[in-house]
Amino acid sequence: MPRNAVQPLDKFFNVMSLVAIVGRPNVGKSTLFNRLVGQRQAIVDSTAGTTRDRHYGKTDWNGKEFSVIDTGGYTVNSDDIFEDDIRRQVMLAIDEADVILFLVEVSTGITDLDTLMADILRRTTKKVILVCNKVDNYDQIYSSHEFYKLGLGDPYCISSMSGSGTGDLMDAILEALPAETSAQYEDDLPRITIVGRPNVGKSSLTNALLGVERNIVTPVAGTTRDSIHTRYNKFGMDFYLVDTAGMRKKGKVTEDLEFYSVMRSIRAIENSDVCVLMLDAEQGLESQDLNIHNLIVRNRKGCVIVVNKWDLIEKGNNTMKEWREFLMKKLAPFNDIPIIFTSVLNKQRILEVLQTAVRVFQSRKRRIPTSEFNDYILPVIEETPPPSTKGKYIRIKYAMQLPTPTPQFAFFVNLPQYIKEPYRRFLENKIREQWDFSGVPMQLYFRAK
Fold it and tell me: How is the quaternary structure described (predicted)?
């Protein structure tokens, strides 16, 4: 293949495994979701229909990482005006997932909705795990035998509220997951994903960089439906470029196809190294842009921000500087991100986008020798030690970079529980001053010596 060539990547691209939690309303799906991902992402309430959208999160068990999706309660003939939308989202989640957790409740037994849902799940080719929730004592374990009638195998008895039985459930999930779906690409090249809201110029940027009309471009939101993967090999750079569908607010996503598109865009972020977050200069920074930025940071991906349509903005002497300061303030605390102002239509600074993304990728892989790191950071700590708490002095004696795919650092402390967030940010800023980690999220851990 010629040096300046692009090639489709679909046969090389694999995604992280996806586990969907489904069931009728009020069986504890969101509680289980929060338990699995380790944080309260989904709202939990006794009111049926609280969850109307799908929530995504990541978890890992015994060293294997996978995505989890929480769905709204499956129901029919209810008074909820969102019933059809919720039911459609549940079906889409089932279709997209690798493993399905069918949640039922021990105290209410088998309901008509459980039977209806079981009929649907028995017809799918996906692996279905029957999970009997709210089993809080041994007597209720005997009651769970009723659920064998659903024809979905042995029920796993858990209490998502207390966590009882979830370890065995996680073992079963791992066993059911397909063999290593997060396989590597053809070779060890950067994976750069272009993300953002609809109509900010993602496909136009891809076409301009590739020099071919690879993707359809129209002013209609949602033109790009799937994530388009291409090998880019020009100007001494070699990486995989991914153009994704625009991610709108959940309330504005109405079509089935767009549900798929947003899900695949999220999974493209999960499987990328660096994300190029595109903004529209005319519309400014919107809440959905912040949501996408938070998704990038939560997944510990490198980030480059591109403000497109810069040619349409009326400029003064300090317009670019003011924009930069505004964006850094809004993106705090993680605001050490390269910001590039472009006009894709005029091909203004588009090559700089790629050069910056590759530099962020290299920074994300940066490894600092332990001796070099301690020679720099220990004098900084000695000059500005952690403030004492409850009359106790906090001493950091040693630090090192952990052998992880992304920059993570461990500090060994006599009293790690007393290290506060402001001091953690102080150390992070000092590390960033010394080494170029621009655009790369960083984790600092404090451990007992």
Answer: Associates with the 50S ribosomal subunit.
